[in-house]
Predict the 3D structure of the following.
Amino acid sequence: MRQKIMIVFAILLLAVLFTSCGIRPIRPIEELMRPPVFSQEDSALHGALQEAVNLRLEGDEKRKVSIVYKQPKKGEYNTAVVKRDLNADGRMEAIAFYVPRSALLNMQTNVQIAFLSAEEDGEWTCLQDEQGNGTDVEFVRFCDFDGNGTQEILVGWRVTQNSVDTKFTLYDLDYSRENTPLKSLVTRDYQTVDVLDADADGIDEIFFSMSDSMGTPERNFAAALDYAPNTPTGIQERPHVALDTRVFRYIGSYVNKLNDGRTVVLLDGQYGANQMLTEVVSWNAASNGFTAAFSDPKTRVNSKTCRDILLPAQDFDGDGLTDIPTQYAMLGSKTPVQLIRWNAVAQDLTLQKIQDDLLYFHPSHSICVQDFFGRSVTADRADDENIVTLLVYAWDADTKRRGEQLLTLTWDSAATIDALTYTLTPYAEKNGYKPNIA
């Protein structure tokens, strides 16, 4: 007898609790939706920028140059013009990202970043307009990097449109520089970047990670830029913490605040076509530097959080802290079949189990083995392009022996409905066995 499990969107929504069985939705690694385009409702601000662009490119503020706004792809600020009172003087500032429309066909044209200030009469003045460091804007963030009460601007850039290379630039605001109130302090390559106070001194640091996709594993590291008033640039780079040498790309970072006030950063790294790991990096006051909890400092290998699926770290149990998936082999499996255990990061930076026995067919679809099958089972797995096939057997946990085959379960990752099907064996039908369907 062949039965089908209808997997529909409503079931996915109901499966958000980690204790439930059935299919569980998981956040994708990449953000697929672009932010909304900038609205031109603020005509005074737009007019001030337009006049500055006209003057810069045509030598006449009335000879209009058509411009196209470029909104950040990620992050909280997803409009091409971001307004904020940076120095807490009650007057708004704004930064705007754009390119001349005539330059759109040139994919190597860098985005312009303009700085504007609001006047008391409601008008705006464009004080600065300069070339950025990439052809697209990745993100905009704000931080008080030097602790003086005026916020600095952190901008992420995509170097070229056909490249994954990214850089960030930290801009400082100082109105005493009449012609250039906005100054670039530093530009660095990055793959992930966060603003945080790792050493709990009350001043923000810029924490970033980088790997060398060209095959120089010594460059796989995490570090932070810190305010250093006694240096020529006012910036110092904290000593690097070495990370797993296998990683060729860091694809996600998450900041956890532990109960004792310490800040830890979780870094998702990809080291194979379908292989990931998660580093846990924290500030060590005793050594006055960063440490990686799971990377062996001698071998530079993190074996504790490796998994053969592109499943990112995320808040699995809904407590506001990011959790880490790890994998282990199903007992009795000859293939073997890998199961996922979700773990919280404990105060001592060890992994604390939240839930295990999760079988993932895809990063967005899983079942809880014990709940789904209603008994101890083992399985062998066979994959063929989009089709995953599991041969499921009874399993005696005491004798650690495999029993009769119960069913064949098939998952079609290309299908949207009827994706998961199973066929009972004659033995299972005779003995009245069937899996538990939510």
